[in-house]
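User: Teach me something about this protein's shape.
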Amino acid sequence: MSVSHPIRPVKGSRHTVEITDIALPNGHGVARLAGYVLFVPGTIPGDRVTVNITDPRKNFGFAVPVTFDRYSPDRSEPFCPHFGSCGGCTLQYLPYAKQLEAKERYLRESLRRLAAVDMETVGIMPITPSPDIHHYRSKLELAFGGREGEVLLGFRERAIPNSRYEALVVPVKTCKVFSPAIERLIPVATRFFSAGRLPPYNPRKRDGFLRHLVIRESKSTGQLMIILETTTGRDLDLAPLWRSLKDEVPETASLYRSINKGPTDHIRYEKVMHVAGNPIITEAFDRFTFHIHPQTFFQPNPRAAQLLCKTITDLGFVGQGESLLGLYCGTGPFEIALSPLLKSVIGVDSVPENITGAIENSRINMIDNCTFLSLPVEKLTRDALPAGPDAILLDPPRGGISGEALQTILRIAPRKVIYISCSPSTLARDVKLLGEKGYVLETAAPFDFFPHTSHMESLLYLRRR
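Assistant: First, the predicted structure itself:
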């Protein structure tokens, strides 16, 4: 029996289509052209748009809008002047309630399609909105651009399918998802670095000096930590910058310089030098205090992360007197916040600075039942654990857990797995693998840690048969 396939449109041809869905994590609108699936950046469900086919592939393709014949009644006006050119937020023209619907649906569909989960058997909670939909982020990474003598700060341009990516910097004056302080901080920084006639780093040419300006903000105190990332080979007198920041952005509490000799555009703290101010800023998480250092990871939306942590206890994922093993623990916010309920906690992370921070955070909060180990999850053995934990808490990076890490978890064989993820697709992959080894998904709880972007967080609870 022959199977008919949709006819692939010709590159460069134009068609009028209805946008019927939005695809995450890229945030592209979805249309169908005689059954052929098209992804159209910059559109939302309800738009009727004439598109130009830019990248037709076998089963799907990409197109760009040429004209909007009708805007969706759900379309809202973006609140940021840099929306569309900045490579950050992608969903500002979608009302927040519609963003939440799309993210909840994305998690459901990922688990159904990629993990083969029967969603009728899973208790899936409604998505929890972010407590703040503006100024929620605790960290911002600005790239240097422009030319020597005319330094700009902003974000790398947004990558568009089938378009040449130049890694250009889109200068910004504000960032509505980070902090109002940025509107005063950027002019101070650009004025200082332009006067110094220092060349910005070009990741395509692999030359230049100024790489990134990283700003961390405590959402509980308003303190700012500034980290200047450069290449090597030049001395810098940053005292005038510090004085200007203290005068014009008094929230600034700490200034660092870091060296990154690598060729790529990724931020790397090869060498970190404290320049001025306090060596740390402090953040509140639940009733605990956490020290934030330049290299350490902390939750990008602390207030939303606290809601997720509360859900773990409210739903009884861990019980009084149980033992917990936290993998990819970072500086230990979840492990420390859960520790009063538990008999013992062990946290594991491969980044030494994170573990140093976790130990420090345990000490300042007078927690005595937490132990933190600096090693890759893949290298963890049962011999390193005093007893088999009742539950494992996973919070891996976007790529999920590796095959070796999965084998580590299966050797430890906890009764319960609590999985926190920022990627529904890799989460679904790992749930499928755990399901094949006897772990049943019982509860799924989506959270919006990243309003106006295509990203989200998920909390899953699995039990061993």
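Now, about its shape. Residues 96-114 form the longest helix (19 residues). The chain has a mean pLDDT of 93. If you'd like, I can walk through any region in more detail.
User: That's plenty for now, thanks!
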